[in-house]
Specification:
By secondary structure, the chain is α+β, with helices and mostly antiparallel strands. Helix content is 32%, strand content 31%. It contains five helices and seven strands. The N and C termini lie far apart (34 Å).
């Protein structure tokens, strides 16, 4: 089945949280997300206010991936692909949509937090797409990468 990409609606926020816990690497449970203030309600609110913009990847009616960015800062907040859909270009396409959107908000420099561990898939994924280390770590211990074009 082909993958369809759409603007992420706020009413699917509970699905985004559920899928976040199903990833192969860096899965985060709903309880952990709640402990840092991320709930379906807060996520939906941020989408509705425009602070957060995102895209979903759909296989039929199933959300198989998503990506969200902060329109105020230019940060890519999260990029998630269901394990069964890894390696099919879903993450790359979602990231490209986010980059285009965040640049449309006037951000010349985009950034994100990524595992500093080279054995983690995301470490190489972002670098292959042109993201560069800033040499800094964020509050979660993730390496801050930037994209400047």
């Amino acid at each position: 089945m082909s993958i369809e990409y759409k603007t992420a609606p706020p009413d699917l926020a509970a699905k985004y949280i559920e899928l976040r816990g199903q990833t192969r690497e860096n899965a985060i449970t709903p309880d952990v997300l709640r402990s840092i203030g991320i709930t379906a309600e807060s996520w939906a609110r941020d989408i509705k206010t425009g602070q957060t913009r995102g895209f979903i990847a759909l296989s039929g009616a199933q959300v198989v991936g998503y990506g969200f960015g902060d329109t105020n800062t230019g940060e890519v907040l999260v990029l998630v692909v269901h394990p069964a859909y890894e390696g099919q270009g879903v993450g790359r396409r979602l990231l490209a949509l986010l980059v285009e959107t965040l640049k449309g908000y006037g951000h010349a420099r985009l950034f994100l937090g990524c595992s500093p561990d080279p054995s983690v898939r995301s470490h190489g994924f972002y670098r292959r797409l042109g993201w560069k280390s800033t040499g800094a770590l964020d509050a979660h211990g993730d390496e801050v990468l930037a994209l400047v074009e």
